[in-house]
Amino acid sequence: MAYDSDLSFVYFGPTKVVFGGGSSTSELESEISSLGCSRAIVVTDQGIIKAGLSENIIKTLGDKCVGVFSDVPQDTGIDVVNRGAAFAGEKGADIVISIGGGSVIDTAKGMCILLTEGGSLADYEGIQLLTRPQTPHIVIPTTAGTGSEVTWIAVIYDKEKGQKILIVESHNAPRVAILDPQLTIGLPPLLTASTGMDAMTHAIEAMTSIQREPLSDAMALHAIRLLSTWLPECLKDGRDLKARGQVQLAATMAGWAFGNALVGLVHAMAQSVGAVARVPHGVACGILLPWCMDFNLSDGEPETIAIYATVAEALGLSARGDDPGSSAAAAVKGSFDLLEEIGHPMKLSEFGVTEEHITEAADLSMADGAIINNIRYVSEKDEVLDIYRRAL
Amino acid sequence: MEAYKAFTQEWMDAWKEKIAGSKEYREIAKDWEGSVSITVNADPSKNIPQTVYMFTDYWHGDVNEFVICDAAKAQSAKFIMTGDYARWKQVAKKELDATKALMQGKLKLKGDLTYVVRNIKTVNKVIDLLTEVDTIFPDDV
User: Fold this and answer.
1) CB A95 within 8 A of CB A136
2) ∠ CA A279-A332-A377 to the nearest 5 degrees?
3) Cβ neighbours of B102 in A, within 8 Å
4) What distance in Å separates residue A305's CA from the closest CA in chain B?
5) What is the pTM for the complete model shown?
6) Does A202 share its domain with A118?
7) Last residue in a domain, options A169, A184, A199
8) CATH number for the domain including A124?
9) If we measure between CA atoms, which residue out of A175, A308, A204, A301 comes closest to residue A262?
10) Is residue A211 within 8 angstroms of chain B, CB to CB?
11) Are residues A54 and A167 in the same domain?
């Protein structure tokens, strides 16, 4: 794997990571204090509360918790963020603590902007508009896959427009991510497998993005190593704290990788089939990943072969010095094998996807921004349709 | 080929002509609707004594208004892009990828980012066509 002589990039990853079993309670107070804050608003959802995942954390906060905002749906919206920020403002919050998955974390990201800048979240639709650090945000993720705890992107639904908006602000990256593997112990097998494959897709796609660079590659490669070793262990024994922790770390590393290098064809296709046929994002990523790798590899580009050969090494399927072509092919096969090993769905049709769905999704994929980052240029809708058919 | 001074009306006219004359652009941009303003922050050390505002308007492959304007008109665009002169020069010379520049905070965008992302090929084509305009940059004079 080589980089061009005119390599030029910015790597951004300002989030402090605190890791360890029980850290969500043992380390939280000191992290709040070290940020100079004392009035925390907790953002979470009803599922997390019912599962008892937030109880001890809120108890630990004691008087430092000035309120709990738990009215967060699965796909958060501008109205939710506006309500949450108004509530936090009334309570005089000076820090936001999110406990949950992507929707909760994105709600909290939006609230941090409004607590600092005021107004409605709709005013901040765009990219890099802010000029100062926002209200501090500590993320305590309860899944291991999105990487949202270390990215500065928030995806929020705009009811008025009937679409999701993106808010990309490096001034709004979470200050601290507390990774407590105990919080992921209760994730059911399918969610464990699919969120894990979401993380694997972030890592592999970051490496085959035309925006890849050495630091994101380093994060991606170690994420791949950890996921290939420990994700199967999580599926064998969901209560294996060590395995859960390694997968959580891998998801965070993959978050840094794709937060900088971006993603490619798999995400373009997964987002599209998700929009058309409601296939869960992680599941779609997992199913499509090996097929897209196969597509990328099939044009025989030496750079792609070299990258996938390195991926094969990280997957433990080849050694340095092995024939690159064979190693690259092993990476593709290894991705299929991993899906089988962890009991991940193998076909989109298992989720009701039909020929009609993929025809529509292929159109959407061609218009998806992620596709332009893909190492192999995708010029024809038929190329995408062919991949969908193979994965159907 | 005639060379044009960057950020002048003549330069914008030449750029507009390139876009309007591109069959490939017309095909790629068939879904694009709306205006984009470009703000180049003042940088006296680079011969940009005042902030420059440009307003460009596109509609389903057609190119409409393409003018140097004032701040108020720039603010009225559907998408507002802002950046320092040095960054815009890098973009115009294809030394800096526009997507990368946005993600890295080298350029700012106000507006529906998902729309831009969905239509990124249109954005890239408009920039590609700009590189075909023989440009004299203010700090190269």
Assistant:
1) yes
2) 75
3) 127-128, 168
4) 24
5) 0.88
6) no
7) A184
8) 3.40.50.1970
9) A204
10) yes
11) yes
**CB–CB contact A166 B119 (8 Å):** no
ipTM over 0.85: no
| B 15-44 residues with CB < 8 A to A | 31
pLDDT range class, residue A164, cuts 50, 70, 90: confident
pLDDT of residue A379: 81
| Shortest CA gap B89–chain A (Å) | 16
Q: How far does the CA of residue A259 sit from the closest CA of chain B (Å)?
A: 9
Cβ atoms of residues A18 and A34 within 8 Å: no
* DSSP state for residue A330 in the 8-state scheme: H
Residue A336, min C-alpha distance to chain B (Å)? 30
Distance separating alpha carbons of residues A25 and A22, to the nearest angstrom: 6
Q: The tokens 């990124």 sit on which residue?
A: B120
Asked if A369's CB is within 8 angstroms of B118's CB, the reply is yes
> Cβ(A111)–Cβ(A83) under 8 Å?
no
Query: Per-residue pLDDT tens for B61-117?
Result: 999 999 999 999 999 999 999 999 999 999 998 888 887 788 778 899 998 877 887
Give chain A positions within 8 Å (CB) of B109: 126-129
Query: Could you tell me if A90 and A178 lie in one domain?
Result: yes
Terminal Cα-to-Cα distance of chain B (whole angstroms):
18
Instruction: Dump the DSSP string for A123-187.
Output: GG-EES---S--S-EEEEESSSS--GGG--EEEEEETTTTEEEEEE-GGGS-SEEEE-GGGGTT-
Contact A283, A176 (CB under 8 A): no
Instruction: Provide CB contacts within 8 A for A253, sequence distance 6+.
Output: A203, A219, A220, A222, A223, A226
Last residue of some domain: A152, A184, A216?
Answer: A184
> Which residues in chain B are closer than 8 Å to A106, comparing Cβ atoms?
none
Which residue of chain B is at minimal alpha-carbon distance from A365? B118
